[in-house]
Structures are given as C-alpha cells and as structure tokens.
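Appendix C reproduces, verbatim, an entry submitted by the partner laboratory led by Prof. M.T., so that reviewers can inspect both the input and the predicted structure.
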Amino acid sequence: MKTARIRDRRLANGLLKDVALEAGNAARLALEALEGLGARAQGLPRGELMVLLRRVIQAGVGAVLAAEQTVSLEAAAWESVRAREAGLRPTSRRDLRHFVRRILRVEGAAQLPLRSVSAAQCRRILEAAFGGSRSGFVKGRVVLHSIFAYGMRREWCDANPVARVEVPAVQERPIAPLRLEEVERLRRVCERRAFRPMRFSLHLMLFCGIRPAEVQRLSPDDVCWEEGVVIIRPQVSKTGGGRVVPLRGVGRLRHEECTVPRNWGRRWQELRRAAGFARWVPDVCRHTFASYHAAHFRNLPDLQLEMGHRDCTLLRSRYVAPALRREAEGFWRRAELCADG
C-alpha cells in the first residue's frame, strides 16, 4: 500500500512537473470542484467521477476563454456606430455620436471589458452621463442598449445588461398651442415680400402638422395637387414611417409659390424673430395643429394618422391641449386667409 502511494505521488509530480502546481495544489482544486458539484458527485465510482470532473474542467476552460474574447466598451461603441451610421441621416449620425461621447466620458466607462459589464454599472454610467435629464437618460439607455446588442452579434458579450436597467417614466408636459393673435403675427410677416417664400412652409407646419425638419426635406414631387395631399416619405419622416397629410386651405395658392426655399433654417429663424418671438417652443406649430384639429374636427383617429402616431396615447398625453371650439374655428379660418394672402 505504501509503495503504491509513493508510486502515485511520483506519477502526480511527474505529470505536474511542467506547471507551477504541486500534487497538493491539484488535490485541493479537485476537492473544490467536488464541493461545488455537491450531491451531483456523491457516491459516484472513480471512473464516472473522473469523467464528471473532466467535463467541469472543459466547461470552465471554455468559459474563461470566452470571457477573454471581448473588447472594451469604447471599442464596441465606435464599432456599433460605424455599423449603423451608413443608414442614418446626418442629424441622426450627429446625435448618435453625441450620446456615445457622453457615455464614454463617464470616468472608468470607456475601458470596461464589454463581457463583464453589469446592469448596476450600466445604471451608474447612465445616471452619471444623463442623470439631470429624464429624456436624456431614456435616449442614452437606447444608445447603450444598441452597443451591447451589437456586441452580442459580434460575440463580444453573452447578454445585454442594459435590458435590466429600468426605464424611468418620462412625464410628458402638454405644450400650449399658439394663440390666434400669435398665428396672425406669423401670417402677417409672411405677407412681406422678403418672407413670401416661407408662406407654404408656414402653412405646412401650422395647418398640416408637418415637423420643421420634414418640411425642410420635402421635394416638389412630395406634393400631390390632384389629390390635395402631402406625402411624407420614410426618408423624410422623423420616425422613418411614411404618412399622407391632407392639404387644407391651399387651393388658391399658386403652385409655383409652393416650394421650400434654400437656407430654410435661417429663414425660419428670421421669420420668428420678425414676428416678435424672443423665445420659441420647439414643435409648437405641430402642437397648435393637433390641439385645434382635435377641438374642431373631434376625430382623434384621423388626427393620429395625420400626425404619424401608432396610437392616440401620445396625442392625449402631450399634443392635445384644451382649446375652445370658437378658437379652433378661428384657427381654421386663418388657413384659408393664409392661402389667400
């Protein structure tokens, strides 16, 4: 028996001579593995026990190698940006890069190994980068989620920890529509010679609910005079979904006047300034359209389609401010006046 033990010890030392382990170290590792297996390893014959331990070792080797096959959060972020930005508009590419930079500026975030980032770390990064803004947090979460989704496709990580980060509820605040007096001020400015090229654009924003960026991207082919509609194509739409919007009150405008001028952004800013607006609420024309449409036509499903929303939830929570029927009637009368000039 003693001779057998000596022979086994010599055999073990011989097997371990090329590694920095002694027989006692190897024995302790085997015991730790058996303790971890618990009841699964109890009572097994030596042969089956060896097979089980071999499987444990092989699985552990695979897990270690997989964990090392990763990249930093910074590398994954910019790779994901390059993979996505070819199909994005210039403004969307700029916004994407802006959010990625804010995420990577958080101390210690850029060099984190993608595979080992936890949900708690993702939450900390988002709070540090966007904690002052709930909407910024939500948008930042979308960007960070897309980075890990890309990393999973590249096999740099096995899961998306951002999916376990709670989405904070964004409280939509209703935006008051423009008063009729304010609508009239905008309309009168467009009667001036210098601003007449903006008449059609103002009409599309106020009386069709088309976003400023969408108006700016319209082409003459998007206006169908025979059907009396404007076609908002997916490549023009903010959300990437197309829609058809009725043209109300433009029947007496000359078609050659119904174009979008060059330097549109500068002209739109100058128009607002000339109308006396020191402060301008973004998308207030669209909110004005929605509020007076709801009050006058009382048809939320039609309004939903014209606005390009999936359902009426956002209309009720944010876009539709209370408006009197009398004010709504006055607003839609101005649609005709704006077209008549």
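Residues 227 and 313 are 29 Å apart (CA to CA). Additional entries are available on request from the coordinating office.
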